[in-house]
Design goal:
Elements lengths: L11 H28 L1 E2 L6 E2 L6 H17 L4 H27 L6 H6 L1 H10 L3 H33 L3 H18 L17 H14 L5 H5 L21 E6 L5 H4 L1 H20 L3 E8 L7 H10 L6 H7 L7 H7 L3 E5 L17 E3 L1 H4 L13 H13 L12 E6 L28 H9 L8 H21 L6 E6 L5 H4 L6 E8 L2 H8 L4 E2 L9 E2 L2 H10 L10
Parallel strand pairs: 3-7, 3-8, 4-11, 5-6, 5-7
Antiparallel strand pairs: 1-2, 4-9, 4-10, 8-9
Helix pairs in contact: 1-6, 2-7, 3-6, 8-13, 11-18, 20-21
């Protein structure tokens, strides 16, 4: 395509300069628009973004590819531009998730796994705002996608028209080659030749593609998962001085080491934690604690749950998906084999959970099966105290087996009230007897909880209140209802989101074990636990190593028989 002839009376150099300036303006505006949509960063803390003066390496390569297309076909059709704009919008969405996930959750994006839970996260968000706010947010989201698509198509067509001119092609190709060489010449900690590039999106997409390929090849499971613990110990160490103790494995949602490490959190929770310790002491129980390294941060609780239950390092969704395709032994199957009734008490499970069949619980009680008939408190509608009251009444009290010889219980109970967004929070109720009925909470209490402000950008005050509530109802349960032989294993599943912890927080979590059996607690002390609720500063190990430590503590090896 030849440039148009200059108007009569206009000098050729002046016309060329105006044409070059016009070309630069059109190309620059189109490129800058597309570049901004692929190079934005998160505006911490929160879900917002801001523009950064960085180049998108993928867009530079796309310009070279578009130049080759236009040189071959002569133009870019509207239909092709519409398709490219659709792909571009998808990349923008992935970019947003890629830069937002570390800031909000404290961990990288996982398209395969997080995408499966996107609708549940959306429902959670909608439960936390008014219908009007939800409608406005959805309309704004759709309008944003449409405007982005229209802008991307317009910019791509403008770029194609600019690239149809032959003169700038050599300069553009040389520029792209120089940028590619600069990108490739980067050497970590030695030669920084990428300082003007934004973080590329291609590695994320490649990583997710590799992850999907691994999930779709379950035959690799044995090599990926490693060797399971032997699960060859007995549980005689739980007999103590009398009957076999019940074991309640409670995964305390979002209970991280930041509650000890951050001065603001430690000071706010010191009183409630001391009340819990006193409740244990007043009822003849001791408590030992340790610090563990969780496989997750800010979310993906199931990775921590699976690591403890299986004794395997389940550090990502690929390992988790592979685990569920196997017949590996777990704590659930181990306790069942030794005569325990195994119960999964899951107030957060709100739909069919076929994955639960892997564990083989003898009773699997999700949201609907728990029997809570009080008012709802947000998406996680059953408050932890009410869920604990139902668990106690249905499984832990004497006679729960209908008059037959009672089997000891092994219960897995992931809490929900300390789950983000930490709102609305039910009030603590001192009288446990009414928590299983329709009047568990008054309408005024439920309305007051929902009226409390939702702090998505600054959630620390809400998180503190949720953690205080957890310590409060646990202390009350130990004082009023908990059977004395009960062994309570309280494990933080992961740190709260980075919006609470701030940047650079560790992945450590606390574990507390309450028991009236001093001998059992001593076996834990011998393995590196410490007395009290304050864990040491250094982690005792990774999350999955807790499984072997529990098996050793619950074991009572047969004493050698005396000789003749």
């Amino acid at each position: 395509m030849r440039p148009p002839a200059p108007p009569p009376g206009t000098s050729v150099p002046a016309a060329s300069l105006r044409q070059a300036a016009g070309w630069l303006l059109r190309f620059g505006l189109a490129f800058a628009f597309l570049n901004a949509l692929l190079s934005f960063e998160n505006r911490w803390p929160g879900f917002g973004v801001h523009w950064m003066p960085r180049l998108s390496f993928e867009l530079c390569l796309a310009v070279a590819a578009l130049l080759a297309w236009v040189a071959w076909r002569g133009h870019l059709g509207v239909r092709a531009a519409s398709g490219l704009a659709t792909v571009f919008v998808l990349l923008v969405v992935v970019r947003y998730a890629d830069v937002t996930a570390p800031a909000v959750l404290g961990r990288p994006l996982n398209l395969y796994w997080d995408g499966r839970h996107a609708m549940e996260l959306l429902r959670l968000a909608l439960q936390s705002v008014s219908p009007g706010q939800a409608t406005a947010a959805m309309l704004a989201f759709v309008a944003g996608l449409v405007l982005t698509w229209l802008g991307a198509r317009m910019a791509l067509l403008a770029l194609a028209r600019c690239l149809a001119l032959r003169r700038p092609r050599h300069v553009l190709l040389a520029t792209v080659a120089a940028l590619a060489a600069s990108f490739a010449a980067y050497v970590p900690a030695q030669r920084d030749t990428r300082w003007f590039f934004s973080l590329p999106l291609t590695p994320t997409l490649m990583q997710q593609a590799l992850l999907l390929a691994r999930v779709l090849l379950p035959a690799q499971g044995e090599a990926v998962l490693g060797t399971s613990p032997a699960f060859d110990t007995n549980l005689d160490g739980l007999k103590g001085a009398g009957a076999q103790a019940d074991v309640l494995l409670m995964f305390a949602e979002s209970y991280g080491a930041s509650s000890f490490d951050l001065p603001e959190l430690a000071a706010a929770l010191a009183g409630p934690r001391a009340t819990l310790a006193q409740a244990a002491a007043d009822t003849g129980r001791g408590v030992v604690s340790a610090r563990l390294r969780s496989p997750s941060f800010g979310g993906a609780s199931w990775l921590a749950h699976a690591s403890v239950l299986s004794g395997l390092a389940i550090t990502g969704p690929d390992e988790h998906a592979l685990l569920l395709t196997t017949r590996r032994p777990t704590l659930v199957s181990h306790f069942a084999r030794h005569g325990y009734r195994t119960v999964g008490w899951m107030p957060g499970i709100k739909r069919a959970w076929p994955e639960g069949s892997f564990y083989g619980y003898q009773r699997m009680a999700g949201d609907a099966a728990i029997g809570y008939i009080g008012p709802d408190f947000g998406y996680w509608r059953i408050p932890d105290q009410a869920a604990m009251a139902a668990l106690h009444g249905q499984e832990l009290v004497p006679g729960a087996d209908g008059g037959a010889v009672r089997k000891p219980r092994f219960v897995v109970f992931p809490s929900v009230s300390t789950h983000a967004p930490f709102h609305p929070l039910a009030p603590f109720v001192d009288d446990w007897s009414g928590l299983n009925g329709p009047e568990a909470y008054t309408a005024a209490q439920a309305a007051a909880a929902r009226a409390m402000p939702l702090a998505l950008q600054q959630p620390m005050p809400n998180y503190i209140q949720a953690m205080r509530y957890q310590f409060q109802w646990l202390a009350s349960y130990l004082r009023q209802l908990a059977p004395l032989p009960l062994v309570l294993v309280m494990v933080g599943d992961h740190q709260p989101p980075a919006l609470v912890t701030g940047p650079g927080a560790s992945w450590d979590v606390p574990v507390h074990i309450f028991s009236s059996d001093a001998t059992l607690l001593q076996r834990l002390l011998d393995q590196g636990f410490v007395s009290g609720l304050q864990p040491p500063d250094a982690p005792l190990g990774t999350m999955h190593e807790l499984t072997t430590q529990l098996l050793r503590a619950f074991d009572r090896p047969e004493r050698p028989r005396p000789g003749p």
